[in-house]
């Protein structure tokens, strides 16, 4: 077992010297700003934020109409506005790589459980985007109009996103597996004028027809005027459609201006790029609006300087079109890197599926969730021995905290010199708070450092800055990527209540974290799922690291709920196949928790379960389970269409009912 904080990797002199970050630091030094360490650079980037963001504007050669007089306005978060007077377009910055890169070079590699691996060059990508954008304009779609999609992770979705951005429309998407209710709850809030849909998709070998769901969507969202159908399951067996539908192939026959004559809609810093949604596990999903200008800067900052990709790189992140990671994957094209799109189950061809794709595509940077890595670990595969991963340099862990053992497995089973990074970011901010730094060492279980421009801190409940103590993850200063608003929240009340209610003028992310003495960051779990044991707050990630490392345990979820006036901590575990969840099994778990953590980590109950409930984006449903135990109506707790496995949630709903009834019977017996 690897200890948290153990040194796993240090960049070779050549790796550090050739990094994008080093080139940026050399550019700064040539302009009179030398920095001897990353920490000094980070401190300058937050203490002299205007100078830092202005430097990115110059370094990445942002193209704009109009001039900006100041980097940011004087208003505090969340009303701060950036580079006012300048007008930019994200898609324009992405597609200038048609000229900057070899035009015949690969921009996108894409495959699915239905489609074989194919490639799209920069020239082909630009042509498809311009044809799609021209067709949208011909249908009356313009700046500010909402363009929705209910598409799987296929290349047409990426083209449609870039075409929407190119004309200044506002993009929003859901994945087709979300179901009708989930799609209506999200897309209905933003009143789209046009929607991209598909006939179906394949997942773990099973085909799913989407045409009935499309009809339901069209019936429920009356603002939709145009429907573009993207055949996916079987293009040779087209579903019957009427005059409301335009086929993707017809869109691609549109005559569009040549690259030099195409007109991008350059928009100001307050103009929306896309609307993203929270998971929707409690209440209606929040529609979060992000701007074109802010995301243009963010994609350069995060993907070039932190992820360290550019021409010659191939980035493969396993993601759904409903997850911010997918938006950022497509946006990564801005660096000149190629990307890989895969639609399907991550284990469709067995536990080595992701590595099969990485080998086929020559992936240099691969991203997936720690939960997926755990499943590979449990399967006992050793990708470094079974696959040619000579191109691979970087593994990126996204979506949830990663334990030291996950770092260790990637290092041992995949590649000993692999740069392994974990990320702290959010759908809400659409930004990487902390993550990879190619000139710093990697320590097991730690995110390398706070990223440039991110005034990230760890605070106590009293607003005291903490080092090596658990606290709240906060942002103490604005950045250009902060949400412009929540859609429909005209006065900003819901926005401020969601993120600024706890600390006046300070963004509270809702994560528990710890900043280490060496500058790393450890995410301990969601604040609202944090456990309080005798006044000591414990992040659930601490329990999962210990329990899920046991060979006898497949998975686990921990919650603390009020029952009979007292707080109870319950650890639900899914035993590994063949393991008996008897008293001895529970005793071994308690002993490990007590020894590796503390007596406070020992739960009041350990309950064996058939499955652990997750959201569709791979997060444990800790808060919904807690609310069930405290008596909430299951129908009001979670959106079934946003769950990875609704049956797992149903089991917990039944357990919660019996749990409460048992407490009631006990109280009645005491009265009698």
Provide a descriptive summary of the structure in words.
The protein is α/β, with parallel strands linked by helices and 672 residues long. 33% of the residues lie in helices and 22% in strands. It contains 23 helices and 31 strands. The strands form 9 sheets. Strands 3-2-14-13-15-16-17 form a 7-stranded mixed sheet, with helices on both faces. Helix 17 links the parallel strand 16 (394-397) and strand 17 (419-422). The N and C termini lie far apart (52 Å). Residues 664-672 have low confidence and may be disordered.
Provide a compact summary of the structure.
The chain has 672 residues and is α/β, with parallel strands linked by helices. A seven-stranded mixed sheet has the order 3-2-14-13-15-16-17, with helices on both faces. Strands 5-4-6-9-10 form a five-stranded parallel sheet, with helices on both faces.
